[in-house]
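Final report, Chapter 2: Outcomes

The project's central promise was a pipeline that accepts a single protein chain and returns its three-dimensional structure in a standardized token representation, suitable for archiving and comparison. That pipeline is now operational. To close this chapter, we reproduce one record exactly as it appears in the project archive, with the input sequence first and the structure output second.
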Amino acid sequence: MAERERLLAALKTVLKERGWRYADLARALGLSEPTVKRLLSNGRIDLERLERICAVLDLDFFELARRARGARDETRHLSPKQEAELARSPRLMTVFHLLCQGWRTDAIRAGFGLSTPELTRLLARLDRLALAELLPGDKVRLRVPRDFSWRDDGPVRARYLGAASREFLLDGFQSSDALLALDIRELGAASLAVLRRKLERLQAEFKEAAELDLSLPSSKRRSVGLLLATRPWVYSLIETLRNEYADERDAPTHGRGGRRSRVTTR
């Protein structure tokens, strides 16, 4: 399949995922529906028009190209057993995390003060779990893709995510490399969906940058945390307005002389 055909196939997949019909795309582009159908069927579409389609879909060309290459597969997870073992042992989890970040075993041993027998035992456990292959000289080859994701309802998130998020936010975020932003706005469903896609794209770019920097020695890299979060939420401060209004509304009214007025019903 030619590259242009792959791009168009990926574009059609995006349209289907987002519930867009050819008529919807035609309206957004100011074209007729038959013209859009022709463009997406015969492959005769220039780069400028393809970029315009990406713009109306809020889809950058890089992401479309990744889809066309088949780089964006279904989210890959570790097995439940693998996650359970990592959640059970923080030391095993730490060694596995460092290996995924491109650390050499000798650097892990020196950097964290592990004895050779202890590190070998941890690497052997990773080998038995089919997470890494233990080679002679305590060298290791990962047996899982580096871009895997933890299961949303899995044991690793259950044990580590909450504590890690709280620890992450304890910092004052005053350094030049730090950024903390919290904003509260009201969004419609369509805008919220766009925002979520952008956050997911940022997470993918974060992982890709880390993948590129694996070629650097560990001494030239630093651990960086990226916390992305969005959810329907009303800040508790807002609720105080409703509560105070309710208190005032329910407070007894008083007549002259400070006496409570009497209401008589018949």
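Archive annotation: Strands lie at 132-135, 139-142.
This record, like all others produced under the grant, will remain available to the consortium after the project formally closes.
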